[in-house]
Amino acid sequence: MIGDLDWIPAADRPDLLAEPVRAALAGPDAAVPEALVAEIDPGLADTAAFCERYAVPPESSANCVVVAARRGGETQLAACMVLATHRADVNGVIRRHLGARKASFAPMDEATGLTGMEYGGITPVGLPAGWPILVDELVAAQPRVVVGSGVRRSKLLLPGRALTGLPGAEVVALSRPLG
């Protein structure tokens, strides 16, 4: 397993998942049947603190960034998955890929309100229908990657390739190294 956490099947602890995530992981059509979950200190949900406290290598942790792409008065929201060691190229690759004139991080209240998830815990699992999910090729290549669970008090562990099977998901080279 990854890090210093007690990973268990997500189906065994639905109380550790936001409602949309719980719904996406339930039943015979589960989005990611192999998803595992671990409880964490919600004060340590932010990536750097989480990785340090729970001994999770940053290259095994992925962030979900919600982007608002605008073109001609229309706004489209999209989720972008990038490794903690990288930065999403919002104004370059992501903006062009979404066919937008302008792209920026979505406001926190909009992102949380529309997803039904907590800030710092947003995950691509269980997003509203129709949202594009852009998965960086480095995330997709990870054998296992830690992502949010929809709430700050837990994390999900799943194969990187599982993110590419979510509705609306595409693999795109959309990041650059931090620094």
TrEMBL record:
Q: Which GO terms describe its molecular function?
A: aminoacyl-tRNA deacylase activity
CDD domains cross-referenced by the UniProt entry: PA2301 (cd04939)
Q: Where on the tree of life does the source sit, at the highest rank? A: Bacteria
Domain YbaK/aminoacyl-tRNA synthetase-associated, first and last residues per copy:
42-163
InterPro entries named among the record's database cross-references: YbaK/aa-tRNA-synt-asso_dom_sf (IPR036754), YbaK/aa-tRNA-synth-assoc-dom (IPR007214)
**What is the name of this protein?**
Prolyl-tRNA editing enzyme YbaK/EbsC (Cys-tRNA(Pro) deacylase)
Organism source for this protein?
Thermomonospora cellulosilytica
